[in-house]
Design a protein that fits this description.
With about 290 residues, the protein is mostly beta strands. The longest helix is centred in the first third of the chain and has 4 residues. About 5% of the residues lie in helices and about 50% in strands. The chain is built from two helices and 21 strands. The strands form four sheets. Strands 1, 2, 3, 5, 8, 10, 13 and 14 form an eight-stranded antiparallel sheet that branches. Strands 7-6-9-4-11-12 form a six-stranded antiparallel sheet. Strands 18-17-20-21 form a four-stranded antiparallel sheet, with no helix packed on it.
Length: about 290
């Protein structure tokens, strides 16, 4: 099978940093099993998207699933978790995530999956943006669903992958009768069908490059502190991630200068700055 379709296009401008959209998977088949299986009260889907496919480091701010059909307008209740992983496939046998491993995932969204039209991209804005900072690793996306839809269930586009890169769980009772909710110890069964996914990403700057946009924003390390300076617009928030995408620190402010003390060992950090006019600047920096 030829390599999976990977498309990148310009989506929106954030200062001088352009957000991009990355489409992962080009399959046109559809089903009701993933990312959420709404035949059931409880479902889970874990899918892996490789760094090679994604092709760009940056902060993931939005994701979209491609709805193919379905007359119901009920919005499935979901939780979305992400993590960086060296694993490139779900394997061939059933597995459990386990409570200890589950702690390595970051909850990026807790809410509803839009379902307002019979087809099209169903986009959600992540409540916790996720730093995808290493192309040698892969992105695991875990979606936990807790809504059963009795009729007109949404079907989502998927791609049949060369190896099983997706795995699923259902409570085992079609028709909204199940009461076996997903837990990290629930068995996940690998499948060939991986849901197509659209990422919206704000690219990272390279180490040593000044993080300056139209508002003259700069991020640097000074006297053991992270310092952000905006010459024109007040900074509203500064968030720090490690290269695995785990959030290390966050501060809210309303000033043109932000200082953050970090008691950390030497490492590479991802610093995300948001200004009062909703400009977002990302900076990869050696701390």
């Amino acid at each position: 099978m030829k390599s999976l379709f990977f498309g990148v296009c310009m989506f929106a401008l954030t200062g001088m940093q352009a957000q991009i959209t990355i489409t992962l998977g080009n399959g046109t088949s559809s089903g009701t099993s993933s990312p959420v299986a709404s035949w059931y009260n409880s479902s889970a889907n874990e899918s892996i998207y490789t760094g090679t496919e994604i092709g760009s480091t940056g902060t993931i701010t939005k994701i979209s699933y491609q709805k193919a059909s379905g007359s119901s307008t009920t919005e499935p209740s979901i939780k979305v978790y992400m993590k960086l992983t060296e694993t490139a496939a779900a394997g061939t046998v059933a597995y459990t995530i386990g409570s200890m491993n589950f702690s390595n995932y970051t909850l990026v969204y807790d809410g509803n999956l839009p379902n307002s039209s019979t087809s099209g991209a169903m986009e959600i804005t992540l409540q916790t943006p996720f730093a995808f900072s290493n192309l040698s690793r892969n992105l695991s996306v875990l979606v936990i669903g807790s809504t059963c839809i009795e009729s007109g269930r949404p079907q989502y586009r998927f791609t049949t992958t060369p190896s099983k890169m997706s795995a699923g769980f259902t409570d085992g009772s079609i028709g909204c009768e199940g009461n076996n909710s997903w837990t990290p110890d629930s068995s996940m069964s690998p499948v060939w069908e991986r849901p197509n996914l659209i990422l919206t990403v704000t690219p990272l700057l390279t180490i040593g490059e000044k993080a300056i946009d139209k508002n003259d924003i700069q991020v640097l390390v000074k006297n053991g502190q992270l310092q952000a300076i905006s010459k024109k617009v007040a900074i509203s928030n500064m968030t720090v991630f490690d290269v695995s995408g785990r959030k290390l620190a966050e501060m809210a402010t309303n000033s043109e200068t932000a200082l953050l003390d970090l008691n950390l060992a030497k490492q590479i950090l991802i610093v995300q700055i948001k200004t009062a006019d909703n400009t977002i600047v990302n900076k990869k920096i050696a701390f």
